[in-house]
Design a protein that fits this description.
The complex is a heterodimer of chains A (218) and B (217). Chain A has 218 residues and is an all-alpha fold. Chain A has helices at 5-25, 39-66, 69-100, 109-130, 135-158, 175-217. Chain A has one domain. In chain A, helix 1 (5-25) runs antiparallel to helix 6 (175-217) and helix 2 packs antiparallel against helix 3. The longest helix of chain A has 43 residues, at 175-217. Chain A is flat. Chain B is an all-alpha fold. Chain B contains eight helices and no strands. Chain B has helices spanning 2-12, 14-34, 44-70, 73-79, 84-113, 122-147, 153-180, 186-215. In chain B, helix 2 packs parallel to helix 5. Classes of the chains: A mainly alpha (218), B mainly alpha (217). Chains A and B meet through helix 4 and helix 5 of A and helix 6, helix 7 and helix 8 of B.
Chain lengths: 218, 217
């Protein structure tokens, strides 16, 4: 592991320990009240969900056309994080929506696109796990198609009316709301980088081990 | 390539019969589940037609490539002195022909069971069905071809295919539903049809582009 890994893990743990106090001390939002606080988890994890998906897609395309196994390991690690942060997003979202919109789920464009994106990444992991030999390339192809699909899902669902709050809300937030939000965003970003690094490292070691086995056999 | 597939298919008709019968059973199951006291659910016909097409399409895709795998002919095809994209296009056209043949039977059946005026505007319906089927088959053919070498391919095909083809299903159902209204809203119909065509173009291009690296061992 690189030298920064242990201090960064400690920092991330510390931030997770502090964050409940910061969130608890943030003022109540006037119309939604307590339930709005879930937003400090929902929004950062949704961003990490998106970042992980982009990392996975870009790494997959590079692997498909360059054939470098490093990109493949990165894509795999990122796909697992898509599923992880996707679960956080898809669980915290309905919890909030039940209070704010009165329904658990709405076939809104963001919700649908997130759900489909999450399903594609689950399919990616299933393919990696059960596809057998050669599934690395197939999975990369799936990631590529999944990326190409996003605009279509967006347009097709957007044709129904959308009620999800837009991202343009974020820069206009007052400091009292903004500070815990940015704090938890940094915290989640740190967590994302740490998990990604650890996961890539695991795959690197596996690949090394395989090579050693092969050299012993040979 | 298309001629070869069609010839094999016409001689045995195995996939055509099984797929068709499966699609008909699908429609029947929906009819039993949804038609209550002789009244079909409002606007149900479009959805049921597309579900039947998607299910039957998955089955046909799986079988079409299973046959290639059993006799190792896909390898031979890839070794043949034809461009890889030609192999893909041939397979795609074969699947589309098969599915369109199935739809010819499915449409009157759904119209009958769900009392929907599906046949009122046959030309529009045909355009929607063909563009939708091409989009579904474009993704399906590539994935099925990729999965030929993978384990547990029967389960993985629908798992991979359905999330990717969601826009096709949405657009197909919406366009068909718009067609079934007493007063057809031309604008809505054109929007969904345009989306289907864009999807077809983008995904056929992508598949042609990635077929080469994906099918190389």
């Amino acid at each position: 592991m690189p030298a920064w890994f242990t201090p960064a893990t400690a920092l991330c743990g510390l931030m997770f320990a502090i964050s409940p106090f910061l969130i608890a001390n943030a003022p109540y939002e006037s119309t939604m009240g307590l339930v709005q606080k879930i937003f400090y988890v929902h929004l950062p994890s949704a961003w990490m969900f998106l970042i992980a998906a982009i990392v996975c897609g870009v790494a997959s395309i590079r692997f498909l056309f360059r054939g470098d196994a490093r990109h493949d390991r990165l894509a795999w690690a990122a796909a697992e994080l898509v599923v992880l942060f996707g679960i956080v997003t898809l669980v915290t979202g309905p919890l909030w929506a039940r209070k704010a919109w009165g329904v658990w789920w709405q076939w809104d464009v963001r919700l649908t696109a997130s759900l489909i994106g999450w399903m594609v990444s689950v399919a990616y992991l299933l393919l990696r796990k059960y596809g057998g030999p050669g599934s690395d390339k197939l999975a990369a192809g799936l990631a590529l198609f999944g990326m190409a699909n996003v605009p279509f899902i967006y347009i097709s669902v957007n044709y129904w009316r959308t009620i999800h709050p837009t991202t343009s809300v974020v820069p206009t937030l007052p400091t009292s709301f903004g500070l815990p939000l940015w704090f938890s965003t940094v915290m989640f970003l740190l967590l994302f980088v740490l998990l990604l690094r650890a996961r890539v490292r695991l795959e690197e070691q596996r690949a090394e081990l395989d090579e050693l086995y092969l050299s012993v056999d040979g | 390539m298309l001629r070869k597939d069609l010839m094999v298919e016409v001689r045995s008709l195995e996939i055509a019969y099984t797929t068709l019968f499966f699609a008909v059973s699908c429609v029947l199951v929906f009819a039993f589940a949804l038609v209550q006291e002789g009244r079909p659910p409002a606007d149900g016909a479009a959805g049921i037609l597309w579900i039947a097409i998607a299910f039957a399409g998955t089955l046909a895709l799986g079988r079409a490539f299973e046959r290639e795998r059993q006799s190792e002919t896909l390898r031979a095809l890839l070794l043949a002195p034809a461009a890889r994209p030609a192999v893909y296009v041939g397979k795609l056209l074969g699947i589309v022909t098969l599915l369109v043949a199935g739809e010819i039977v499915l449409v009157p059946l759904v119209a009958l069971f769900f009392q929907a005026p599906l046949l009122a505007r046959p030309i529009w319906l045909a355009i929607i069905l063909v563009t939708g089927t091409v989009g579904f088959a474009a993704v399906g053919t590539l994935f099925a071809a990729m999965l030929v070498r993978a384990q547990s391919r029967d389960v993985l095909l629908p798992v991979l295919l359905y999330p990717i083809t969601v826009p096709v299903i949405i657009a197909g159902v919406r366009a068909t539903a718009a067609l079934l209204q007493p007063e057809v809203d031309g604008e809505i119909l054109r929007f969904w049809l345009a989306l289907l065509m864009c999807f077809d173009i983008v995904f056929v291009t992508l598949a042609l582009w990635t077929f080469e690296p994906l099918m190389t061992d």
